[in-house]
Amino acid sequence: MTKTKNKKSMNSLYVLGFPINLFLELFIQFTSLVIPVTLFRKSLQESNIVIATIVVLLGLYIYPLTILFLSAIITRLLPKPRLGKIETQKDALKYQTLIALNTFVRRTPARWLLIFPFPGYLFYKISGTKIDSSALITSPDSLQDVYLVSIGKNSLLGWGCLVLGHYSGDGSTTFLGEVKIGNNVLIGEGATVWANVRIGDRAIVQNKSVVMPGTIIPPDEIWGGVPARKIKSIKENEESSKSSFVSPDELEIYLLELLKNNYGIQELNRDAPLLSLNLTVTDITHILRLLEKRYKISINRTCINITTFSLNEMILITEKEIKQKRLL
Fold first, then answer.
1. What's the gap between Cα 296 and its chain centre?
2. ∠206-210-216 over CA atoms, to 5°?
3. Are 216 and 202 in contact (CB under 8 A)?
């Protein structure tokens, strides 16, 4: 009985929503075409080909730009459903209209203007997104519920990530909630952030992660996985990176100490082959093993030419391996 009732209410909702959505889309489309069509007609009367081309190109730019800003203004003016569970048909109709308008924008050429800072920022700002001008959204489809999202200073949303102001509990019930993204936050490529999520300042959400509804990510933490969980804090990450960093000067001092203590070599030309110092291949292999043990790395010996192998080359190869390990 309940299922039948829900089905009837959904059918009536679509019956009510369709003409509203159709009217809004047609209104935006026709209004956006007024200036481009006028410019196009003027270009036909223009004898100068260059000016005519410029006029046509201007019209082609104005068309998606008008769609963008008209949609943003209408989104701002439309009544919004209450946060939480959508229980009434009135709230469902409001939300359906907003979603349809958002989907409409993404079906038009206007969507590609969203990746540019100026039109993108103005669109989100007018639509109701609380966004700082320094924030960067790299994908046109990232914000699905624009009026429910706030983004702080210098935050970056990677390509293909989704920030959603809604979620379905059991597949038939929709819940709405705000998403608050702090300052200097990085949301990785392909990540998904659901409703009722708080992301603290300087936090990082790794690529392809899914931040579940109701999650609170504290400041200065790295989260990842499905569902997303804390991996480490930013400070821990910085300390581990710092501890694994070795400067070329430190490497040279260590190698000179090895050569001095083990082989009695006091001075040497950094570019001179080590074999010319009466070191054998076994000696060089021994030094490489000591380097691997000290810095917990694995040196690729296939790239080493023993006949020309020098202290300078040993430093460069070791430094490269240490950096590679740090990146991993």
1. 33
2. 85
3. no
| CATH node for 244-327 | 1.10.1200.10
User: How confident is the model over 105-121, as a mean pLDDT?
Assistant: 86
Higher pLDDT, residue 193 or 261:
193
- 95-99 LR contacts (CB < 8 Å, sep 24+): 95/166, 95/174, 95/176, 96/13, 96/17, 96/21, 97/17, 97/20, 97/21, 97/24, 98/145, 98/147, 99/144, 99/145
Mean pLDDT across the chain: 83
What is the phi/psi pair of residue 289, to 5°?
-65, -40
Say if residue 124's pLDDT is above 50: yes
How many CB atoms sit inside 10 A of residue 210's CB?
A: 17
Query: Helix (H, G, I), strand (E, B), or coil: what is residue 231?
Result: strand
Tell me the C-alpha distance between 35 and 32, whole Å: 7
Tens of pLDDT along 82-92? 888 888 888 88
Q: Output phi, psi for 186, to 5 deg.
A: -120, 120
Give the fold, CATH level 3, of 129-233. UDP N-Acetylglucosamine Acyltransferase; domain 1 (2.160.10)
Please compute the mean of the pLDDT values over residues 121-137 and round it to a whole number.
Answer: 91
Q: CA nearest 70: which of 18, 116, 115, 34? A: 34
Place of tokens 């930013």: 234
Cβ atoms of residues 193 and 205 within 8 Å: yes
Return the amino acid letter for 157: L
Mean pLDDT to the nearest integer, 312-321: 86
Q: Is 114 helix (H, G, I), strand (E, B) or coil?
A: helix
Q: DSSP letter at 115?
A: G
Q: How many CB atoms lie within 10 A of CB 226?
A: 12
- Compute the Cα dihedral for 8, 84, 212, 125 and give only its sign: positive
Question: What tokens does 127 get?
Answer: 């639509």
